[in-house]
């Protein structure tokens, strides 16, 4: 029996030298014949690019105290060596009048014309500043984690001793902390803590933050504190600015972060573990969340390209208290709940074209998150209760993503009863999270943040499917929740000038009109108007005694276009 030869697949060195055909075996026939070792040349490792080489790689370029990340840019990377020899200019504490004029010319188109005002008139008393920082730590920091609480607290306390000598980047951060702290307070709380109305303090600290950002030339800055300040400013702006304007400004924050390389893991090399792998990751992911929400409410796409999202890892599941700026390595991520748990997105569910497989994946992930993080949480603690509700809401929204007949052409599509049951069950789970926050006294400190993430898509889906619900008891429970939503969100009515709020009111009236028509068609008792229905009908000039379907369907124009009347 002949031995089995191993096929090599290309000519050996001897056959190549003799320029004869090699049979490709080891050893080949020619080498056996001449009695020599059969060997081949090694293929060059440079012949084919690796997967890593195929990706676009960036480079950190430092110029003075500016640290810029450049990506696939031959001009900047070729000059990087020359830029590193630049002598860093001294860090500004207070820019000169000439610099202020130059900076204001670039930022006036964003913040509007600003007149220079001395910091002496902008800084609050030390006692007020301390109270605002405590409000920030209580009401905001647990939900944002943009800064490292202990280290920033140390800097703030040091700055209170002489607020007019602090560095300009820290001044930006402190003013933005003051602003968003005021946003989180009620008018009554503002008067009790600061002796003035919330409106007055909002105006003061909004101007102070904008002035501080202008002074540091934030549009050109690569300072992390400045970006943190601008991100906190945008979080506060959600409550006072137009959605379209906010979306443009979150895009600006995204560009600033990309210029610093926050979207690329490779840019974190040569930085301390504390600065690189904690603070910068936190800021980047908060900006991604903020920009995604701004895109949703402004009607833009919520699926940015991969090169915009980058490859920066999510922040580790580590308590603030376990981190110190001087550490040489990060501690291992905790396998249990931490104070970061409220921020960490769940592990991604693999995309699937099969709804059944997708829903099974969601169920499996929910069990994993519950057993690992939520099971042992003390829900008597407000933040833990919020985290559990948020997790349930997130998984319910994942399930709802399988069936969303919210597009106009899909609303008449037939849905099976199990699908309707699933929509009702999960929609109510999502909306209950919002209701819980408004009805639980211990969670009122966080309403400033929760109200900014109201689940518009979910309530639209619920209202779209409500007329098809067979069980009158189920429909009644769902309508009670809808009424609660309007009760807790008075900005939806009356006289809302927001087109999305007006459209939501139209859909609510249309769905209610279907309920009334169906009850009449089968001779059932006509349901009594809910308070939200009476308000919406009155707002649109639709008489309470009329229930004509055409009246309900035709209230489509917002007050910015025309006021609807019954006219039938």
UniProtKB/TrEMBL annotation:
Which GO terms of the cellular component aspect does the record hold?
nucleus
**Stretches the record annotates as Disordered:** 41-66, 79-103
Q: According to the lineage, what is the superkingdom?
A: Eukaryota
What keywords does the record list, in alphabetical order? Metal-binding, Nucleus
User: Which PROSITE patterns does the record match to this protein?
Assistant: ZN2_CY6_FUNGAL_2
Q: Where in the cell is it found?
A: Nucleus
Protein name as annotated: Aurofusarin cluster transcription factor aurR2
Main localization of the protein described in the UniProt heading: nucleus
Biological processes per GO annotation? DNA-templated transcription
Q: Which InterPro entries has this protein been placed in?
A: Sec_Metabolite_Reg (IPR050613), XnlR_reg_dom (IPR007219), Zn2-C6_fun-type_DNA-bd_sf (IPR036864), Zn2Cys6_DnaBD (IPR001138)
